[in-house]
Amino acid sequence: MLSRADCERMDASDPLASARANFVVPAERIYLNGNSLGLQPQAAAAAVQRGMNAWAQEAVGAWNSAGWIALAEKIAGLLAPLLGADPDELVVGDSTSINLYKLLHAALAYTSQERVLLIEQGNFPTDSYVAQGLQRPMRSVPAEQLLDAIDTRVGVVLLSHVHYRTGARQDMAAINARAAEVGAVVVWDLAHSAGAVPLDLHAAGTQYAVGCGYKFLNGGPGAPAYAYVARSRQARLQSPIQGWFGHVRPFAFDEEYQPAAGVQRLQVGTPPILSLCALQAALEDWSQVRLSKVWEKRQRLFELGVALCEQLRSAHSAVGDLRLLTPQDAERQGSQISLQMPMAGPVNRALQAMGVIGDFRAPDVLRFGLTPLYTRYVDVWDAFNVLHSVLRERRWDHPDFLQQPRVT
Ligand SMILES: *Cc1c(COP(=O)(O)O)cnc(C)c1O
């Protein structure tokens, strides 16, 4: 049996323990929701304040004097090592949904009309909705059939690398290789991958990817997202939204659109500078940590969570139908533990009332995000301990917890 003292010992010898001090951790909370909204870096408020000051003091001049015009590119440079990409293959801005639209559109433009867009059943809704909106022939298959479904009838595959509900990670290199064999291309969604698991987009042969700034990257609510396009795809890259920031010379005010070099043509309009300031601070923190240590701790946090889940299940039969959805194989995991159970919504709200912040994904999944930069081993222990009491004492069975709020 694992004890809390074991977890305290693991924290005491954790090489990442000091990174937690770089975050504003909400008082009296066990925060296991960095997979949905990463905590605020201590440096973020000052970074946004500097942006505010530049706005106050220099106003429009700050585009040049404070370097606002180049800020998104600078952030791409900080992001690149987390992805195993080069900075000039990344463009930072817009939301994940918008970047998905741009990349799917661009990828489909070079695919014959008969070839279908293949998606995974049960993918994150925005991915499926954006795909549906493109009005191309589409096919959706369960994740386990995906690899076999990639044949010469498929033009583009849209896939989450780590699935938002189950936390299961796909074999990126194998799927890219299969797609390449049949002349198809994959657009990867890295929302639950960057900052969560090691990524090497080059080694995996990835052509297109998008991802999110506010989850594991800690860029702040609604932080700018990013898009990745392999260098070999950039010459023919066409954005479906030809905005002036994607023009080769925005301030020439030319009549005719002429795309900027490479991936920069995916920029659309004026970047959100204050949001970029927060994202920059978050990624500067990331650049200070040894990534290998992050991945090692992720795995150890996970092993702890799985062991505690087993302890919970064997402790009493009332949780007999609690199931661990996330794969046990470390190579197939993301950075969240997904527990499937009846009444997961009310259980999650009861947990929140007791200070354990995970989240609920309809219809029956409770997620605990593990973020090695600020999650402690004792946090995982405490969370499972509280979950145990919520289930044992049926604390979820209360009118306050049976009603679902707008954001789950
Ligand atoms: C969180 C998430 C998104 C978010 O899209 P937004 O446009 O930022 O709202 C997209 N895809 C996946 C898989 C996600 O998990």
Account of the 3D structure:
The two termini are 33 Å apart. With 408 residues, the chain is an alpha/beta fold. It is 37% helix and 13% strand. It has helices spanning 4-12, 42-58, 62-65, 71-83, 96-109, 125-133, 146-149, 172-181, 273-287, 291-315, 344-353, 377-392, 399-402, and strands at residues 23-24, 30-31, 40-41, 90-92, 116-120, 138-141, 154-160, 185-189, 208-211, 226-229, 323-324, 336-340, 356-357, 359-361, 365-369. The strands form 4 sheets. Strands 4-10-9-8-7-5-6 form a 7-stranded mixed β-sheet, sandwiched between helices. A 4-stranded antiparallel β-sheet has the order 11-12-15-14, covered by helices on one side. The mean pLDDT is 95. It is globular.
Characterize this entry briefly.
The chain has helices spanning 4-12, 42-58, 62-65, 71-83, 96-109, 125-133, 146-149, 172-181, 273-287, 291-315, 344-353, 377-392, 399-402, and strands at residues 23-24, 30-31, 40-41, 90-92, 116-120, 138-141, 154-160, 185-189, 208-211, 226-229, 323-324, 336-340, 356-357, 359-361, 365-369. It is globular and about 70 Å long. The protein is built from 13 helices and 15 strands.
